[in-house]
Fold this protein.
Amino acid sequence: MRFNVTVASESLPVEVVEAADQRGRYRVRLGDQWLDVDARLSPGGPVSLLIDGRSYLADVREENDEVVVTIGGASHRLRVAEAGRSAGRPGGRVATGSGERLVAPMPGRVVAIHVRPGDRVEPGTPLVVLEAMKMENEFRATTAGVVTDVAVTPGQPVNAGDLLVVVGPGR
């Protein structure tokens, strides 16, 4: 899978290839450099990374339209977009003018759903947790409104672009 990752004002093409028989192991291309990466997620904790034989612990969280990665006390704000799609919306949100449609930004598996149709949400309310590339990504509402559709179930595999949740206008 190919992404465009922007750090500060620099954009870098990133390609991620999962090892066929080793879950959690990847070949990652950053620009012209290929790296061997082993990524393990601790429940509720940091991500354990082994990159070309060097070990790191990383805290990864979504904040507004960015992914914040903290390694060794240094935080880096990333804007991640699937190659060929518009940049800057890691949650795969599509504004509808009267709410939002949350779509999967990458292939993965639905781990948890925090809302049901009819639930009122505020900006920051957790909607869905999606596991992709051995990392759990929690997607939160960006607008206030009422959940009008939950199109997935826990455990369901999804493809990039699949509809997850629709938030309509609040009353």
